[in-house]
Design brief:
The chain is of the alpha/beta class. It has eleven helices and ten strands. The protein folds into two domains: 117 residues, Periplasmic binding protein-like II (D-Maltodextrin-Binding Protein, domain 2, 3-Layer(aba) Sandwich), CATH 3.40.190; 99 residues, Periplasmic binding protein-like II (D-Maltodextrin-Binding Protein, domain 2). Strands 1, 2, 3, 4, 5, 6, 7, 8, 9 and 10 form a ten-stranded mixed beta sheet that branches. α2 packs across α10.
């Protein structure tokens, strides 16, 4: 791909696609972004795959900075993200406002879709273990290696889709039921950084400043994310 190469988590895919022309204006050149779960991108980055800007979980950015693969001064928290549940448009919305209600909804669902490699899927797998329902849920689960779980709900292949709220909202034909209840939900922070080997570090820095700015915040919020604004 030509242009400024960005390797990014799926969590910001919807917002970045909406902001496409503004991203290119900020960078001063075309932006070629590839979206995948952090768990898929990290092995590639550890092996030295080239990129001008990376957007990953905060833990992923910290690891790459510690390993000397990122300019540590460029590491910037961009957004906070919550895990949610979605259903096919028009389908009934289960009650998920408490841990007990969520447990019952998951046990009652004919099928639940979640991602094996994404931060949300890893957290959800741990959650159903804590709730004591992993065996029952996984017996009917649609576990995808990567991608958008809400696509399965939109096609009627899963009754419930679990993923970051922003990733659910990026898929047409679904309705967001809500976030996981605060008592069991987790909040992920997604951060960005510029690799030391970036071919276009100046352009990447301009794009990063835009993504972290108040100007980008409305699009990030509309996508279901909480911007982390400096100051």
């Amino acid at each position: 791909m030509s242009g400024l190469r960005v390797l990014s988590t799926l969590a910001v895919a919807g917002a970045m696609r909406v902001m496409g022309p503004r991203l290119e204006a900020a960078a001063g050149m075309p932006v070629a972004a590839e979206f995948a779960p952090t768990g898929v991108l990290m092995p590639r980055l550890r092996e030295g795959e080239a990129a001008d800007l990376v957007i990953l979980t905060a833990e992923g950015v910290a690891e790459l900075a510690s390993a000397g693969r990122l300019d540590p001064g460029s590491a910037t928290d961009l957004v906070r993200s919550h895990i949610g549940i979605a259903v096919r448009a028009g389908a009934p919305h289960p009650l998920i406002g408490t841990a007990a209600a969520l447990r019952e909804a998951l046990l009652a669902a004919p099928s639940v879709a979640y991602s094996r490699a994404g931060a949300s899927g890893i957290a959800f797998a741990a959650l159903i273990e804590r709730l004591g329902i992993a065996r029952e849920v996984n017996a009917r689960a649609k576990v995808i290696p990567a991608g958008f779980t809400a696509e399965l709900a939109a096609r009627g292949e899963a009754a419930l889709a679990v993923q970051q709220v922003s990733e659910l909202l990026a898929v047409p034909g679904i309705e967001l039921v809500g976030r996981l209840p605060a008592e069991v939900g987790t909040v992920a922070v997604f951060s960005a950084g510029i690799p030391r080997a970036a071919a276009r570090p100046a352009e990447a820095a301009r794009l990063l400043r835009f993504l972290a700015s108040a100007e980008a915040a409305p699009a990030l919020e509309a996508a279901g994310l909480e911007p982390v604004l400096a100051g």
